[in-house]
C-alpha cells in the first residue's frame, strides 16, 4: 500500500467529524467514497477546491439517514473483556510469585494492623453506648479548692440526691444515688458463697441504665429486700436452677437478707459497669447501716448518676446545680473555703476523658486513641507505599507489553482497565488475607489490649470503610501504570527508545525515605516506652513484695479474730508475720488534712496519706528505716506516735524529725491531738510508680483496719503455704470466702496500662519494620534485576563481588541515613512531650538513637545484601545470555 | 395509497443503477447521473437515497474490493431487487398512462408555437 503524502489528505478535522457522527454500518463505504472523490478532485481541481468540496460533502452528509443512532455502537458485550482482564491479572500474579507474595503479604499485614486498630478505636469510641440513654446520662462531680489546687471527686454527700430531686427536678429525668460499688459477699442459703462486685442503687437505676432484663423487671428494686443479679452471677450462685425468688445474704449481715427479683444480661466489656454483677437496693443499705442514716451535706460516701431531661443540656444543668452543696453548707467556714462546685460529667466522656485537672476534663484514653490511630494510619501508609512502589517498579517492565498490546489494537481505555483490574485484584486478595489474619489474631489482640472485641461481620460501617479503603488503595496504586504507561507510544516503546526509571525513581525514593522515617520513629518510641517502664520498675519500692499476701476484711466476722488467727497461722509454720492496716500496701484509701507543726506556714494546708496500722505492720511488709525506730507494742506511748516517710519528713522541714511533734485535727476530731514522730521510713511506691511519693503518716489503731497483711515464711513455698493459710481461715471464719491478693501481683498491675502501650507499640513497630523490609527487599531485587546485564558486563570486565555488592547497597543505605536524620529529631520531640506526663521519668539518652541508627542500618544492609549478593554472585554467562 | 413509493430522485438513482448493471456503487452512480442529466449530485443526497431504497427493499448491496484510491475502504455495490424492478415498472406504467391520457391537441398546440 502506498503511503499517503500529507498534502493529499483531506481536512482532518472534517474527516474526524465525519467519522464521529457517521453510522458505523456505512462508515467504511462512505468514507471510501469520500476519499475516492477527493482524490479525483485533487487531480482535476487542485487541493484547495477539493478540500472545499470535501467539507461541503461532509456537511451535506450530516443528515438523518447517515448519522448514527444514539448508543448504537455501545451494544457490545464487555463481559469477555473483563474476563480477559482478570485472567491476565491472575497470570501476572502467578508468574511473579515472589513479588505477588511481598505485595499481597505486605499490604495484608498493613491492612490487618489498620483493621485491628480501627476495631479497637471503634470499641473505645463506643464505650458505654450499651446504655440506651447514653447521651443523657451523667455523673455528678464535685470540685474542691485545696491548697490552691482544684481537685475533682465523684464522692458526694447523701443529702444531695433529694436536694437535686426537689430543687432542680426540672433538669433531670432521673436522679440515682449509688453507694459502695465494690466486692461484696453473696451467700445463697449458706451453701454457695461468692465475692462479687456490685452496688447499692436507688430503684430507678435499672431503668436509667436500661439493663436488659432476662427475668423480672426494672422495677425489681422497689422492694428494699430484693436484688438484681447478672446472668453470670445467677449461674455461679444457683447453677441451672431458676434464680427468681431465691434468698441471698449480703456480706453475711443479718440485716441484709434479699430475694432475687430479676436477672439481667451481663453488661458488655466496653461499659464502665461491666463488672457489676449485682444491683441491690439503696434503701437496704440505708436501713441496715446506722452511718448511712445520718443524712447531711457532710456525710460523703456515694455517687450520683443523673439522666438529664430532654429539654436541657449537660452544660445548662451543670450551671443550675453548681452551688447545690455550697448553698447548704454556708454556715461551715471550712466547707465554704474549699468552694464545692458541682459539675456533670457526661457518660460519653467517662471513658475517653476520665482525667480531671483543675476542675475541667483533661483527656484520658483519648490520647491513647489518637496515638494508636496515628500509628495505625502510618503502618497502613507504609504498606500502601510498598504496594505502590512495587507495582510501579514492576509496571516499568511491562512497557513493552503495553507497546505490543497497542500494536495489536488495544485501546488506551482497555489498557487502563487492565492495570486497574490487576491493582484491584491484588488489593482485594490482600483484603481477604487481612480479614483472615484479623479474625484469627483477634483473640490474641483482645488479650493484649484488654478488650473483648468481636469481628463486626454484620456491621455496615465496617464493610463501607473496607470498601472505601480498597477503592482508594486500588486507584492510588493502579494509577501510575494505568495513566502513565498506557500513554506510551507503541512504536517508541517497541523500539526501546523510552527509558523509564530516571525520573520515575525519585518519588519512589521519597516513599522509601518516608517509610523508614516512620519505622525508625516507631523503633525509637518502643525502646523509650520500655525504657520508661523499666525505669519505673527499678524504682525502689520501700518494702518487700515477695510472699506478701493481702486479705480484705469484707465482713464483720473478721473483726475480733485477729489474735486467734495470728496464733493459728504462726502455728502452721507457713506464716512469718501478720499485721492489719486500713489500706493495702499497694493503695491509699484515706488522705487527710488538718496537720500542724512548729514552723509551718499558716496558709499551707497539706494533705497526708493517713494510714492506720497495727504494731507488726512494719515487720510484716518490711519497712526500711532511715531514722528512728518501728512501732512497738511494749511501749505505751507509741499509740500517740507517728511513723512518717521521707516525703513527709522533707515537707515538714525538720533537721531531725524524730522526736518532733505533729498536731492533727482529723475529720472526726474536734480538737488537735499531738503525735510524736518516732521513725522515718523510706518512701513506698503506693500510688502510680511514675508519681512522686505521697507524704504519709502511719499510726497505731486497732480500729478502722480493712486489710490483713500476711508475710509468708520464705522457707515455705507459696504453693505449700496457701492451703495451710486457707485452712486456718476456713476454720476460724467459715462464713467468708478466702479471697486473697498478692502484693507483687497488685503492684505489677500499676504497670499494666504502660506495659500494654509498650507491647502494642512493640508489635506495631515490628510489623512496620517487617513491612518496610519486605518492600525494601522487593525494590532491591527489582533494581538488581534491572541491572542484570550491567552486572554481568562488570563481572566480565573484572568487578569483584564485594564492589558489586557495595554498588547495589549504596543507594539504599543512603536513603536509610536520610530517613534516620529526619526520624531522630522528630522522635526526640515526640518522646520529650510524652515523658512530660510522668513525674518519675527516664532520661532520653543518646544511646537509644545510636542503637536505633545502627539497628536500622544493619537491617537495611542485611535486607538489601540478600538481593545484592544474589545478583552479584550470578554467573555472567547466564545474565548476559538471557533476553 | 400508492402501491410503490418512489420519489423523483430515487427513481433517477434506481434507473441509473439499472444502467450501470453490476458496476453500480455510489461514486459511479453519482458520475453517471451527473454526466447523463447534467445535474450535480451531493454525496449526502445520494447516500440518503440509497439507504432509503435499501430500507424499502428495492435495492440490495454487497461489499466489493478495497482500492488504493479509496484509502483501503471497500466499495459497496448495489443491485435492484425483484421488488425494485416491480416498483420501476409500476412507476413507468403510471407515467405512461398519464401520458396517454393527455389530449393530443394540448401537446400539438404547444408544439405549434
TrEMBL record, chain A:
<dbReference type="InterPro" id="IPR047699">
    <property type="entry name" value="Permease_put_prefix"/>
</dbReference>
<feature type="transmembrane region" description="Helical">
    <location>
        <begin position="419"/>
        <end position="442"/>
    </location>
</feature>
<dbReference type="InterPro" id="IPR025857">
    <property type="entry name" value="MacB_PCD"/>
</dbReference>
<dbReference type="GO" id="GO:0005886">
    <property type="term" value="C:plasma membrane"/>
</dbReference>
<feature type="transmembrane region" description="Helical">
    <location>
        <begin position="506"/>
        <end position="530"/>
    </location>
</feature>
<keyword id="KW-1133">Transmembrane helix</keyword>
<feature type="domain" description="ABC3 transporter permease C-terminal">
    <location>
        <begin position="762"/>
        <end position="876"/>
    </location>
</feature>
<dbReference type="InterPro" id="IPR003838">
    <property type="entry name" value="ABC3_permease_C"/>
</dbReference>
<keyword id="KW-0812">Transmembrane</keyword>
<dbReference type="GO" id="GO:0022857">
    <property type="term" value="F:transmembrane transporter activity"/>
</dbReference>
<keyword id="KW-0472">Membrane</keyword>
<feature type="transmembrane region" description="Helical">
    <location>
        <begin position="812"/>
        <end position="832"/>
    </location>
</feature>
<keyword id="KW-1003">Cell membrane</keyword>
<feature type="transmembrane region" description="Helical">
    <location>
        <begin position="844"/>
        <end position="866"/>
    </location>
</feature>
<feature type="domain" description="ABC3 transporter permease C-terminal">
    <location>
        <begin position="374"/>
        <end position="489"/>
    </location>
</feature>
<dbReference type="Pfam" id="PF02687">
    <property type="entry name" value="FtsX"/>
</dbReference>
<feature type="domain" description="MacB-like periplasmic core">
    <location>
        <begin position="100"/>
        <end position="323"/>
    </location>
</feature>
<feature type="domain" description="MacB-like periplasmic core">
    <location>
        <begin position="518"/>
        <end position="725"/>
    </location>
</feature>
<protein>
    <submittedName>
        <fullName>ABC-type antimicrobial peptide transport system, permease component</fullName>
    </submittedName>
</protein>
<feature type="transmembrane region" description="Helical">
    <location>
        <begin position="368"/>
        <end position="390"/>
    </location>
</feature>
<feature type="transmembrane region" description="Helical">
    <location>
        <begin position="760"/>
        <end position="784"/>
    </location>
</feature>
<feature type="transmembrane region" description="Helical">
    <location>
        <begin position="462"/>
        <end position="485"/>
    </location>
</feature>
UniProtKB/TrEMBL annotation, chain B:
<feature type="domain" description="Transcription regulator PadR N-terminal">
    <location>
        <begin position="20"/>
        <end position="88"/>
    </location>
</feature>
<dbReference type="InterPro" id="IPR005149">
    <property type="entry name" value="Tscrpt_reg_PadR_N"/>
</dbReference>
<protein>
    <submittedName>
        <fullName>Transcriptional regulator PadR-like family protein</fullName>
    </submittedName>
</protein>
<dbReference type="InterPro" id="IPR036388">
    <property type="entry name" value="WH-like_DNA-bd_sf"/>
</dbReference>
<dbReference type="Pfam" id="PF03551">
    <property type="entry name" value="PadR"/>
</dbReference>
<dbReference type="InterPro" id="IPR036390">
    <property type="entry name" value="WH_DNA-bd_sf"/>
</dbReference>
